[in-house]
Amino acid sequence: MSGPTVVPPPLSQGVGYGVVVGLGAAFAIGMVIATRSLKRTFGEDNKTTETYMVANRSVGTGLTASAVISSWTYSTALLGSPYLTYWHGIALPVWWANGQSTMICAFGWLAIEAKRKVPNAHTLLELIRARYGTLAHIIWIVLCLINNLLNFSSMLVGASAAVSALTGMDITAATYLLPLGVAIYTYFGGIRATFLTDYVHTFIIMVILVWFTIKVLALKEIGSIGALYDAVLPLSKAHPVAGNYHGSYLTMTSKEAIFFGIIHIVTNFGIGFSSEVAAAVPGYILGGNAYFAIPFAFGTIMGLGALALEQTPAFPTYPRRMTTEEVSSGLVLPYVSQAIAGKGGAAAVLLIVFMSCTSVSSAQLIAMSSIFSFDIYGTYINKKATNAQIIKWSHIGVVVSALLNSTLATAFHQGGVDLNWLLYFLGILICPGTFPTAFALVWKRQTRAAAVISPLIGMACGLAVWIGTAYAYYGEATIASLGQTLPCLFGNITSSFVPLVITLAISYIWPDSNFEWSDLLSIKRVEDDEHGEVAAKASHFDAEAYFSPERVAFMKRMSRIAVFWGIATFAGQVALWPLPMYGARFVFSKKLFIAWVVVSLIWLWVALFIANFYPLLDGGLKKIWLVLKGEKDASAVDETRSADISPSSDSVTASPPGEKVAVVVEQKTA
C-alpha cells in the first residue's frame, strides 16, 4: 500500500513567518533591553571590546554549563539523532552523544591551558599569529571561516527544511530569515547577549524535549516502554537493518552506528569559552555530561517511536513508510511530532528548531565577526584600531556572516545537498586543523613549518581519499556516492590524522627551540578610554598579579582535574560502554530495554536541572532581582577594579573572583 507522496504541512505559512520573524524580533528586542539593564546594574558596557567579545571574562559555572549544553544542541542534533536512530537503531544515539560529550569535557582542559598561556587573547587566531606568524595566521583564518561557514550553513539546511515541512514556508525565505533576529541581538549585545539567549533558549528546549519523551511513551498507540519494545522488535524481519546483528533495531552491534560514531568523534573539534577559571572546568564537565542525555534519550525515544508509530494511522505518511529523501532531510522528528500531538506537536518542533538554530547562530556570528574585526581588520587593515573601530567592524562582521551563511545554505538546497550529506562530509574540511591547533596551545615544540604545512597536506589527502574511495566503491564521484558512509569515514580519518603525523615529523626533524610560552603575553587587550571609566577597567591587565603563585597553583590543579574528567568520560562513554556491547552481539531483552530507556530519561531530567535551574542557583536569581529592582550592584565596581589583581589564598582555593581571563575561540561543530 502507498500513502500520499507529499505530506501537507500541519501549520500555516503565517505561523512559520510569525515564529521565524516575530519571535526572532521579540528576542532581539528583549536582548537589547537586557544588555542595557546589565550595563545599568553591573556596569557592563557592550561598547567596549572586552565586554562585547569575551563578556569581561566573567561568566559563572551555572551559566557556562547551560551555554555549553545550548551551544551543542544544534538543530542538526535535534533533527539528526531521531532520524539516524530510525535508520540504524538503538546504538546510534549513544554514538551521537559520546561523540560530543567526550569532546566537550576535553575542552575544559584546553580552556584552562588557554587561561594559563594566553590570558589576553580574544580569538584562536590571535594565538596562531603570535606564535607562528603571518602565513600561518592567514591559513587559520581560512580554516576557521570554512569551519564556521559549514557548521552554520549545515544547521540552516536542516532547520529551514524542517520549518518548510511544518509550515509550507518557502525554504529560501526560511534560510535567510532564521538568522535575522539573531544578527540583531548579537549586533547590539555581543557575547554576553549570546550567553543570555543561550540560557533562555535552552530552558524552553529542555522543557519541550522532556514533554516529547513522556508524550510518546504515554500515547495510546504505544502506551509504555515495554509496548514500544514490542512494536519495534518484529521490524527486524519486515525491514531489517543492513549491518546490524540479526537486522535488529535493538542491538548495539551496528556497523553503520559505529562508523558514524568514528566520524562524529573526529569531526567534533571546537572550542568556545568566556568563563572564570573556577567555572571553566566544572562548567564544561557538567555541561558535557548533561548534554549526553539529549541525543541519548531524545534520539532513542523519538527515533524508535517513529518506527512504532509509522505502522499506525496516526503517522502522517501512513500506510507508506517515509522515503529516503524525507528521512535524510531530517523530517522524522516533524512527522512523529504530528503523530503524537497533532498541530501542537508540530508547533513544538517548530519552536525548538527555531530556538536551537538561533542559539547556536549567535555564537557562530560572534565567532565570525571576531575574525573580521580582530584578525582581518585589526591585523592587516588598521593595525592601530581603536575600541570603537573594532566594535564597528564586529558589527559589520555579524551582518556579513549572516548573509554569507544563508547564501551558502541556499546553494546547498539548490544543489540537492541535504542534512545527512553535510553531517558526514563536514569533518573532511574541518578536521585538518585539529592536532595543529591543540599543539599550538599545549606543545611547545611544534614548529612554524609544521603548523603551516600539516593542515594543508591533511586537507588535500582527506579530499583525495574521499573522492577516490567514492569512485572505487561506487564507480563514480557524485553527490550521492560522495555522501555514502565509507568515503566520508575514510576521508574524515585521513584529514584528521595525517596532520598529526606530519606535524610530529617536521617538528622533530627540524626543531625550533626559540619559542617560549611567555612570548604569547605579547597579545594585549584592547585598551581604549573613549567610553569612559568602564572601558579602562575592563581592559586593564596586570601580568605580575595574574601569574601569582596562588593563581598558578590553582590553574594547574584545575588542569589536572580537567585531564582526569576528559579521560574518564572517554573511557566510560566510549571504551567501556558501547564498544564492548558492539562485540557482545545480542538483541536487547525487554527488561534491558526498559532499564536502558529509564536511565536515559533520568539522565535527561538531570540535564534539565543543570541547564534550567543551576544557573539561577549559581547567582542568577540575585542578579535578576537586582535588575528588576533597577538598583546598581555595589560590588560591580569593586569586582571590576580587582579583576586583574591576584585573589587571596582563600578565594583561590574556592572560586577566585579575579579569574576573569579566557579566550573566545568559537570553532563549534555539529
TrEMBL record:
InterPro entries per UniProt: DUR, Na/Glc_symporter_sf, Na/solute_symporter
Key words of the record: Membrane, Transmembrane, Transmembrane helix
Annotated transmembrane regions: 15-34, 54-74, 94-112, 132-150, 162-188, 195-214, 290-309, 361-381, 393-415, 421-443, 450-474, 489-510, 561-580, 592-614
Any matching Pfam family: SSF
UniProt GO MF annotations: urea transmembrane transporter activity
Main location per the UniProt record: membrane
Region listing for Disordered, in residue ranges: 634-659
Membrane topology, from the record: Multi-pass membrane protein
Comp. bias intervals (Polar residues): 643-654
Domain of life: Eukaryota
Subcellular location: Membrane
Family membership: Belongs to the sodium:solute symporter (SSF) (TC 2.A.21) family.
Annotated protein name in UniProt: Urea active transporter
Upper taxonomic lineage: Eukaryota, Fungi, Dikarya, Ascomycota, Pezizomycotina
